[in-house]
Here is the input.
Amino acid sequence: MEDRTILEVNDLAISFQTFEGVVQAVRGVNFSLKKGETLAIVGESGSGKSVSTKAINRLLPKKNTIIESGEILFEGRDLLTVSEKEMQKVRGNDIAMIFQDPMTSLNPTMQVGKQIAEPVMKHKGVSKEKAKQRALELMDLVGIKEPTKKYKHYPHQFSGGMRQRVMIAIALACEPKILIADEPTTALDVTIQAQILDLMNKLKKELDTSIIFITHDLGVVAQMADRVAVMYAGQIVEIGTADEIFYNPMHPYTWGLLASMPTLDVGQTDLYTIPGSPPNLLNPPEGDAFAARNEYALEIDFHKEPDLFKITDTHFAKTWLLHPSAPSVTPPNEVVRRKEKYESLQSGKSQAIRVGGEAIGSRT
Amino acid sequence: MAAEPKKRKPIVEIKEFKQYFNAGKKSEVRAVKDVSFSIYEGETFGLVGESGSGKSTTGRALIKLGDLTGGQITYKGQDISGIKRRKDLLKFRKSMQMIFQDPYASLNPRLTVKEIIGGALKVHGMSENSKERTERVYELLESVGLNRQFANRYPKEFSGGQCQRVGIARALAVEPDFIICDEAISALDVSIQAQVINLLIELKESNNLTYLFIAHDLSMVKYISDRIGVMNNGRILEVCEADELYIAPLHPYTESLLSAIPTPDPETERSRVRTEYDPAYHHYDDLDNVRLHEIAPEHYIYCHKDEVALYRKKREKLLKKAKQYA
Here is the structure.
């Protein structure tokens, strides 16, 4: 992984005009993506994770979308302001997308091979023959057996997992710099999901693509992500490396998410729950949007939106609990267990160094 | 959780259940080939497997939403295929209820919550008049954690989690003994799933219920179930107690299924080894001796008679290993 930022989203805010009024779907989102890294965005339905990423590819309906503020910088250009024609050169070429439902996102009346070859012809301007050759290579790459035979098949002749492989092949056809995967495995069985995730990890290593991975499944995040952003009610409430989010979470919402997932350990007896349901973004609550569901909420949470506090260079969380004058609280048991593991991981690292030092010391 | 197995009384017994759709035609689908298991009174039995493995078909057959192609299902000692008269059917359905996967699709959009839940009470003649019925609907709503003011609302006015609670209240309305939850939490958000699971567990304690919990999310199934059955390709391949399934999974399919669950723990994920299952594994030539064999008390595997000793050895080895780590 290089340390070069290829995408930067700054202060993005998006609303939708609906019958009932203006829904503030995304309310000031900031994140960046480095070359070759996987950033996972987690959150419940309606938290704004899909909307933020669809904005990157400008796939939101023009009719009722209002971009309130923000910029999306890709290779020095703000994608929110470039012309549609220019956007078409980026979409599918530099930034490709994989969607949740492989059945509705493939063309049912077109041979799958042709669907894979199409973007190659369109963006790379190669001949039909060359594009077909490339499509066959791609089908082989994503693990579709007998590509020459399957080239002529239609989507309905494929199973869900195979269709998702076709989707991945289409997305990778032009060797995009960024791959946005929006819940790519949610509709699949666990065993098929495992295959697709392995495939994506392998391809990421080979092609050095950056991935934005949207999901609500924290297990999948643990397997895929280098960094994780947790979204709630249209905002990123916590962002950090995978280890920081899973072993040293700071935001009560992240605590709740981690603690409300049953583990496979034997003899688990209680399951933590986050009470209530997410707020209506037609008129978001004053202060911290999570306050009403938060058992750790402070007085100030109901009046004033928390700042984004810095924990380490990579780890930030939006909660007043990190304010120097906030009282200290004890998170749910499961989170305490995780924090202990974090400490042992950290001390494990320093211990390894110490042991190494001793070894050298004894030799001299 | 593991009460003395001898004392337990089965409430449901399924024997060699088969379900073929379009039987005899070219388009025949053998959804369920051979399923046998029993569910004890007061327990939660989890049924897991991939889509198309036949787990929902089994649940639907159990509540008589379709006729069996073969085999026998008994509920409280009575063969359910013998239940034909309307009066008997009503009695049967009063005792067994179902909670469906899609909370919106399973509620009539034109009825208010009061009519949805009250309808069940009316059909089964469980209330004298509408006033009493309304009272009971309020009680039910409160028991599933909903406000009684919600009674006059329509399903579309609720979130997914709230709709699922209405579905649960409807199932509870007729005071059943047995509830089938067919992917009852799959359509819900993570934070809401835990709420509904805890509610189901609470209601089970307070109403003396027995559950058949059908799902594909193995970690939730493990959390709620006492015993688990693993299905694949129309067959039950392994049945045992929930904890044992995770300590000592014996059938290769169970192993592959367990190795595929992503856990919210990056350290574990980095060192994960996946095993893949070859379906050719249970294509036995000599079918006479192939069935569910008891490897240990309450631990059954679908295998050939000759494999039993092998599986027993494997189990002992795994249990020993688990003890070392504990």
